[in-house]
Design a protein that fits this description.
This protein is 35% helix and 19% strand. The chain has helices at residues 31-51, 69-72, 112-120, 133-137, 148-168, 188-199, 218-224, 238-243, 286-296, 318-339, and strands at residues 56-57, 75-88, 93-106, 125-131, 141-142, 173-177, 206-210, 248-252, 270-276, 305-309. Strand 6 (173-177), helix 6 and strand 7 form a beta-alpha-beta unit. The longest helix has 22 residues, at 318-339.
Length: 340
């Protein structure tokens, strides 16, 4: 089938699970009640995507407060009690972050519950998202390894352990989220790609990397205003990604200043093309989605295009997110009719 659909990863959480319309939304339950609520929200996320005609589903990241820290919570060697201030994304903004204080080790499985719940309740393909090594180390202070690259590869080993377990749970695609790839572009070809490949080592399922310019929060919006009328930063890293073993690249295309012609640098990769703008509450039409797919097809083989959202939808209003999912499903269907 041409133009299969998926989402970047996250969906808004129901108001009975967490505070709505915000990142880092506080949970509304604890203990066993929270575990049950997370499972219920996971099944709801699967159902909503199915109803919208999404082909490659995710569990909506319903069991995680944050796409990075949802993984870090299950890692030994991290001190969450004594946070320190650190510049994130090359000092784009400051944040209080946990510290790595000892050798890193998984406490056990990280995402088994939600992966298995989603797998048991859909026959469609399932994608699962994990934070990439470079993005993880840009979200933590190092008080143990004394070397950013060494710490990144330590995380890559843990990610690989969980990714293989997810594959065994029946997950069809593992996607690593690496927004840091468009910040530390000089480091991506030197060690970032290698760390990513270590995280994906030995996987038989499909592999993907998601790169983006971030959510529509003020710090990101202000930074984007400094990048000029065309965002050609990816030209510095796409050749390295093209040579890598990672099979798919997810990138924002709708209402983005990324010139679509640079997608040609990713020859041989499947492109998860963002056709839904998650930084706007305006709901796309099927025609809007179809037009972006058509524009991408000028530089990417139609058989290599997967239609997706620009980024996660976690902080959006649920009604808007669900309407955008419907537009995604309808737009891809329209594109198949026109260009199939």
């Amino acid at each position: 089938m041409l133009f299969p659909t998926t989402i970047a990863g996250s969906l808004p959480k129901p108001e009975w699970l967490a505070e709505p319309n915000m990142l880092w939304a506080p949970w509304k339950a604890k203990g066993e009640e929270l575990s049950r609520a997370k499972r219920d929200a996971t099944l709801l996320a699967v159902k909503i995507q199915e109803d919208a005609g999404i082909d490659i589903l995710t569990e909506g990241e319903q069991a995680r407060q944050h796409f990075v820290h949802g993984f870090l919570e299950k890692v030994d060697g991290i001190d969450f009690a004594h946070k320190v201030e650190m510049g994130i994304r090359k000092d784009r903004y400051k944040a209080m972050v946990p510290q790595v204080v000892a050798p890193l080790k998984l406490k056990g499985r990280v995402h088994a519950d939600e992966a298995r719940a989603a797998r048991a309740h859909t026959g469609r393909q399932l994608k699962f998202t994990l934070p990439g090594p470079m993005t993880i180390i840009d979200t933590l202070a190092d008080s143990h390894y004394g070397d950013r690259v060494k710490m990144a590869f330590a995380f890559a080993e843990l990610l690989n352990e969980e990714a293989k377990a997810l594959e065994a749970d029946g997950i069809n695609m593992i996607q690593f989220d690496e927004p840091a790839f468009n910040v530390f572009m000089d480091e991506v070809p030197v060690w970032g790609i290698q760390a990513l490949e270590r995280a994906a080592q030995g996987l038989k399922c499909a592999t993907a990397v998601h790169i983006c310019y971030g959510y529509g929060i003020k710090a990101n919006v202000d930074w984007k205003d400094t990048l000029g009328s065309e965002w050609r930063q990816y030209e510095e890293i796409f050749p390295a990604i093209a040579k890598s073993s990672i099979q798919q690249v997810a990138i924002e295309c709708r209402n983005s200043k990324v010139p679509l012609d640079i997608l040609a640098l990713l020859k041989g990769k499947k492109i998860q093309a963002g056709v839904i703008d998650v930084a706007s509450d305006t709901v796309e039409t099927a025609e809007d989605v179809c037009k972006v797919i058509d524009a991408v097809s000028k530089f990417v083989a139609k058989s290599d295009i997967i239609a997706t959202t620009n980024c996660g939808m976690a902080p959006m209003r649920r009604d808007i997110a669900e309407a955008k999912l419907m537009a995604l499903g309808a737009g891809a269907k329209l594109a198949r009719q026109r260009f199939g």
